[in-house]
Structure formats: C-alpha cells, structure tokens
Please model this.
Amino acid sequence: MVMRSYQTVPKQQKYTAKQFDMEFPSEDACLEYVMQRRWPNGLALCVRCKAERKHYRVTGRTAYACMGCGNHIFPLAGTIFHKSSTPLRTWFYVIRLMTSTRVGVSAKHIQRETGVTYKCAWRMMKQVRLLMADRIGLQGPVEMDEAYFDARKTDAKATVFGIVERGGRVIARVVPDAKQSTILPIVGEVLPPKTMIYTDDHATYDGLRWMGQSHKHAVVNHSKGYVDGYAHTNTVDGFWSLVKRGIKGVYYQVGMEYLQSYLNEYTFRYNRRKVMYPMFRLLAERTTTQVCPCAREAKLLAKPE
Model:
C-alpha cells in the first residue's frame, strides 16, 4: 500500500494558537506590542518638548505620557484600530485567523469565534484587507491571463487581470475590460524590459512585443493543448482556481466594489507562501507601518516657535 504524502508547514512558518495566547494574553500586551513597534523602548517625539522623550503607560487609557511634560501619545492613532471599541486582542485574533488559512475565512466564522456582531466582524475583515494590499514589481519569466468573476446582485461579470512569476509572486487587479489599452499599461508598470512572457492566444496580448520594452512573448493555443514546450499558463490558472474556489466556498459571492480587496487578501497569502516567517507576524507588523499621520500631532508640530 502506497502512503499518500501530505503537505506540511515548515516550522519557521508556523504560528499556533498556543503561541498567540502566550504572546498576546491580554489587552495590555497587545497595546504594548503596538507601542514597541511604533516607538521602540518608549522613545517618541514629544510635540510639546519638541524632543525625543521616554514615554510611560497611562493606567486605564490606551495612551503613554511623556516623562518630561506629561503630554500623551496614542499608539493606536492612525492605525486600523483607531477609535475602535472592539478589544485590541480580538483584532489580533482576527489577523491570525485571516493569515492561518489558504482559502479564506468568513465573517460568520469570525462572529462565532470572537462573539462580536456580524457587522463588526465584516468591518474588521475589511480593515485588515487594507493592510494586505501590495504594490510590487515582478521578474520574469511570467504568465499572464484574464479571469471573470460573478458579481453579487448583478448579471455582469467582473474582469480581473493577473500576472504571476513562475514559482513566485502574483498581482491581480480588477480592470474595466481586457482590451490592450487597459492591459498593456499595467504590464509596463510591473514588469522590467526584456521579460519573458507566456500567455494564451487572446488577441489582447498581441501588442506585448511592440510596446517598446523588448519583451519576449510565447503563446499557447488552448484549442490544441495546454502546454507547448515552455509555453503554458498553468501557474496563473492555478491561482485563479484557488481564488474562485475560495470565494465560492467561503464567501459565495462578492460585490463588485469589494472584489479588489478580496483579491488583495488572496495575493498577500500567495506571495508569502514560501517566506520562512509566520504570516501572522508579517501582517501584524503592517498595523504599525501602514499608519495615517495623527492629525493632532501634525497640527502641533506645524506650529511656529
């Protein structure tokens, strides 16, 4: 009898529920994590002292006070947690759930797991997906293809264009159509010159050789077969399959206006599937690096002496 081999997660990528409970046992631990990520060792610019000062935790508040003048700073300001009444540990738990799955997790599941309302769970997931958005460039050889997704509450189909590195990363963008005038500017944005590109025989890709970037282009005719030497689109087709199965099996349908955010979620996980570091940590770190400036601090710093 032949034993079936199963995929295993490398030790460096694992982040278990036990590890989460040890690292984030309380609200204070979550707040301290955000503080240390934004201002290591509590050293932050005080807008009153106009100097970098040590700040200490203010009991009972999500704030830290300057040791010199007592002015408060708020680590959650400008983050996705800003002005949220949901416990901070629940936010981190949702981030762990969204990074520990391959095909996605539903808002109903998060509602059951955390005890928040469905509306709150949906909003939290929407905010976390904002952190998952990537603006990256790719390296060849690449495959590109367009896909069509059923849009919620409409008979129209949403067009999505994707480019994937063989064995590497992917970008997926909702586009108005699959015309050359739409597709070629995206290709010019994310690919360097002289890239080896594999596509199917869709007429949209006929202009790749002539867009002034010296790209090399090989085509596979799917009416004759799915592989022609090195020419195939199996990698990007596999990604489309993953996304479509996930959306249909977990979310059922996605509104046209939200489809890009769901694609961001899938591409974030796909692009980091080989990174030897827990995906939860990668996304948790983004909660403090992708922040909006605090309006109050910006206003105080802009005041003349």
Remarks:
- The first strand starts at residue 43 and ends at 46.
- Residues 11-131+283-301 form one domain.
